[in-house]
Each structure stands twice: as structure tokens, then as C-alpha cells.
Amino acid sequence: MQAATDINLHAPALLPDAYCGDVHLRLSFYKRLATAQTQAQLDALLEEIVDRFGKLPPPAQTLLDVHRLRVASQPYGVQKVDAAPDLITISFRPNAPIDPLDIVRLVQQNRHIKLAGNDKLRIERALPEAPERARLVRDTLKALGLKAQ
């Protein structure tokens, strides 16, 4: 199994004490989120968490976004996503399963996306909210369009 993708949305990503007070339960959810391999597994966990504790507070939503991005970016060979409020970088593993022509096309069609070296995309766009950054990363990966999916 390949190493997990490192995702940083530059926002708190956790289940707050006030939301889920039982530390053992919190740790159990963290472990289950970290080991989820599919969006369906994450959906089931989300449903369970919301059923037990109610609507997700922003840090819990960010935590879920981080794990959704981790699962979504694995098939693309993404090594790291660093999504700061004014700059997002997506770093790919060597020999990522993406057609270089798809990357060139993406860069040509989107002025805010630049190629940084052979294995990194820079997205220059000011997005103050973590969910917006997560959505942009997801949309960017979808635009690369893996044939395998």
C-alpha cells in the first residue's frame, strides 16, 4: 500500500471536545476516518457522527474534507496537498498515473494554475475558507480526469 497523502487545509481539522466529549470515542472516530479507503466509508462515518452528535461544527467539517481529499487524491498519485488561503500546491509522486498532456491542457485552460517543476501544480487563488479550498482541489483533480475511475 502506498503512503497516505498528506493534506493540509490550513484550518483546524478535529472533533472538538464540546461536540464529542468522550475522548475514547473521538480517538475511535479519528482512527476509523484515517483508515477509510472509499468515499462510501467516509459517508457512513459522517452519517454515524451526525446521528450521534448533530450537525458538524467547522473543525469537524474540515476534518472530513481532509479525509475526503486524502481518499480522492490517492488514485491520482498525489503525495501532498498544501491548501493555504492564497496558494494551493498539489505535489504528485514520481510516476503518478496522470497523462502529462492532461496536466498541460489543465494549465493552458486555467490561468490560475501553473506547473511548478515536473511534479507540482500551483493554484494561485485567494480562498479564505477551507471548504472552498478543498472543493477547488477536488475540482482540479477531477479536471485531470483519470481514465481508471
Structural notes for this entry:
- By secondary structure, the chain is α+β, with helices and mostly antiparallel strands.
- The chain has a single domain, classed as Transcription-repair-coupling factor, D7 domain (Aspartate Aminotransferase, domain 1, Alpha-Beta Complex).
- The chain is 46% helix and 14% strand.
- It is built from five helices and five strands; from the N terminus they run βαααββαββα.
- The chain has a five-stranded mixed β-sheet with strand order 1-2-3-5-4, covered by helices on one side.
- A hairpin with a 4-residue loop joins strand 4 and strand 5.
- Helix 3 packs parallel to helix 5.
- The longest helix has 16 residues.
- 26% of the residues are buried.
- The model has no long low-confidence stretch (mean pLDDT 92).
Radius of gyration: 16 Å
Spatial gap, N to C terminus = 18 Å
Low-confidence stretches are none
User: What is the domain total for the residues?
Assistant: 1
Which secondary structure elements does this structure contain, and how are they paired or packed?
Elements (H helix, E strand, L loop, with lengths): L5 E3 L14 H13 L3 H15 L4 H16 L4 E6 L4 E5 L7 H10 L3 E3 L4 E4 L6 H15 L5
Helix pairs in contact: 3-5
Keywords:
Aspartate Aminotransferase, domain 1; alpha+beta; 149 residues; 5-stranded mixed β-sheet
